[in-house]
């Protein structure tokens, strides 16, 4: 059974951008998924997290086609799935007895 995070949350990526150049062609990928950039500011980028399965996903940023990297830094985001309840609480679940 695969659980997917529904996405839609905001991720802030801090970086110094030139104050007068906040309309740069910025692209952010989480895993293999390109994420929409919600806002570009002098302090960095805000992106909308995509729906992805639970696990560790690589984050990559490029501005005007140049990949942004820092020595010794490998960006990842971890998606977690928390199950608060399962119904039915007793009896048959997927053909098995609990």
Automatic annotation (TrEMBL):
<keyword id="KW-0732">Signal</keyword>
<dbReference type="InterPro" id="IPR052387">
    <property type="entry name" value="Fibrocystin"/>
</dbReference>
<feature type="domain" description="IPT/TIG">
    <location>
        <begin position="14"/>
        <end position="74"/>
    </location>
</feature>
<protein>
    <submittedName>
        <fullName>Fibrocystin</fullName>
    </submittedName>
</protein>
<dbReference type="Pfam" id="PF01833">
    <property type="entry name" value="TIG"/>
</dbReference>
<dbReference type="InterPro" id="IPR002909">
    <property type="entry name" value="IPT_dom"/>
</dbReference>
